[in-house]
Amino acid sequence: MTRIAVTGAAGRMGKALIEAIDLNPSVHLTVALERPGSSLIGVDAGELAGIGSNGVKVIGDIRQALEQFDVLIDFTSPDATLANADACAFSGRKMVIGTTGFTPEQRTQLVSMADRTALCMASNFSTGVNLCFKLLDMAASVLGDEVDIEIYEAHHRHKVDAPSGTALSMGQVVASALGRDLSEVAVYGREGQTGARDRQTIGFATVRAGDIVGDHTVMFAAEGERVEITHKASSRMSFARGAVRAAGWLQKKETGLFDMQDVLGLK
Ligand code: NAP
After folding, report:
1. What letter does residue 28 receive in the DSSP assignment?
2. For the chain, is the Cβ count within 10 Å smaller at the N or the C terminus?
């Protein structure tokens, strides 16, 4: 049985992860972490997640618990995730990383840690979204340069980064299939006298409102027809279940950087 630690245990995803671990008989929650100094240190993690007591008390320092888990699942913030990855790489603990919003430099730092331990990183851990990545690759390859490609995403009002990591990953899949460099062709929002659309560009539109868990649509629009590939998440449990599945899969790996496509065998 895989022993799992969850950090950001009081967060929206942290609570969903604790519930998903509880529902999966092949894994076991052994450690729950929150920000050092948090008022929640010492609180029962199961009570925090609303599933009833599970006897795991929230702690604030990962170094106290490195021997007590096999895989850390981290959906927090880029700085917290980097610090945790450093501790995990040093001690050979594996890590599932769901945090988004890393700078290119932070991403490079994380990638370098995969020489010392196994990491699974994905901007979206839902099975449906990962299937969409595969469909997008197929659609872009077939429709090619004959279409305008636009990516729309909507999330709840608390989300702090934009466009979403998932929208960027979708853009990356489409750009790679078409041999384009996303950093050169991405257009993040439009305003004023923008001029006519350049077909090579990939447009992004972001909505932040209410409690939307996560909507993504990629539109391939030609003269006379368009194809839209849409995914709508209605519960954070879709991400949490995928991350827990990834943790079980990752336990068998020694080192390397993996993603959810590896976990699902979609490569
Ligand atoms: P959230 O509700 O703000 O939760 C983040 C939690 O992490 C908070 O409880 C926060 O505590 C805690 N935290 C911050 N620094 C910490 C530290 N140093 N040690 C321990 N805990 C720490 O946010 P969320 O909606 O759960 O999202 C978290 C991240 O996951 C975001 O980057 C989001 O984009 C990403 N996400 C990814 C996926 C995916 O499938 N990959 C899906 C959903 C969300 P404080 O409140 O004290 O700061």
Report:
1. E
2. C
Residues of the chain with CATH 3.30.360.10: 127-233
Q: How many A from CA of 195 to the centre of ligand 1?
A: 39
Which residue's alpha carbon is nearest to atom 1 within ligand 1? Answer: 11
Fold classification of 127-233 is Dihydrodipicolinate Reductase; domain 2 (3.30.360)
Residue range 2-121+236-264 forms a domain whose CATH class is alpha beta
Q: Is 5 exposed, middle or buried (0-12, 13-18, 19+ CB in 10 A)?
A: buried
Mean pLDDT in consecutive groups of 10 residues from the start of the chain, 267 residues: 97 98 97 96 98 97 97 98 97 96 96 97 94 96 96 96 95 98 97 97 98 97 97 95 97 96 92
> Pairing mode, if any, of strands 214-222 and 202-208?
unpaired
> What is the location of CATH 3.40.50.720 in the chain?
2-121+236-264
pTM to 2 decimals?
0.89
Ligand 1 contacts (CB < 6 A) are 7-8, 10-14, 33-35, 38, 75-77, 80, 98-101, 122-125, 239
